[in-house]
Design a protein that fits this description.
The chain has 5 helices and 10 strands. The protein is of the alpha/beta class. InterPro entries: DHFR-like_dom_sf, RibDG_C, Riboflavin_Biosynth_HTPR.
Length: about 190
């Protein structure tokens, strides 16, 4: 069975974006060592424009073949004219308001997202990347199998949280940790069921 992995960037205090959801500030704090790690270990998660810019457009899929995102996450690229941000992956956008997919390579999920994710997990293939955001992570909290958290050396004080799942003790097992000279850390956790 495929895993659903929440691979996300966050501040030290657990925010994935400003109160309005903007997370562009994460891109201001990338050093060569961290970029090398991301493009080597997690190239699947680099958007099409970034893949072109970094010279990894043709990198084979290694970890994920499917990306799942909420409407607000999708809108970040859409508002800049990019209707197909992860064309190298199967793309799913969860939305109750969109009635038609803005791009033929994007599939909408407007109904029971948990049931659809369970169907996707039962398929053959590489793992599924939960790209964001907080509401979708909250809806899927019991379906997430792994968390990979890129923590940046920022303290924001307020903003969009990693999840709106509500309080609950969910036990995780640390499976990896790596630190970088620019102050970033990447920690991996498996969900203990």
């Amino acid at each position: 069975m495929r895993k659903l992995t929440y691979f996300i960037a966050t501040s030290v205090d657990g925010f994935i974006g400003a109160p309005d959801g903007d997370g562009d500030f994460f891109y201001t704090h990338l050093d060569a060592e961290f970029i090398e790690f991301l493009t080597t270990e997690y190239a699947d998660t680099v958007a099409r424009l970034g893949r072109d810019h970094l010279g990894i457009a043709d990198a084979p899929l290694s970890r994920f073949d499917t990306v799942l995102m909420g409407r607000a996450t999708y809108d970040i690229g859409f508002k800049q004219g990019d209707t197909n941000p992860y064309g190298h992956l199967r793309q799913y956008v969860v939305s109750r308001s969109l009635t038609a997919a803005p791009d033929p390579q994007v599939e909408l999920i407007s109904g029971d997202v948990v049931a659809r994710v369970r169907e996707l997990k039962a398929e053959d293939g590489l793992d599924i990347w939960l790209c964001g955001g907080a509401d979708l992570a909250g809806q899927l909290i019991d379906e997430i199998d792994e968390f990979i958290v890129k923590t940046y050396p920022f303290f924001l004080g307020t903003g969009m949280p990693m999840s709106r799942a509500g309080f609950g003790l969910r036990t995780l097992e640390l499976t990896g940790a790596k630190t970088f000279g620019g102050g970033q850390t990447v920690t991996s956790y498996a969900v203990k069921r």
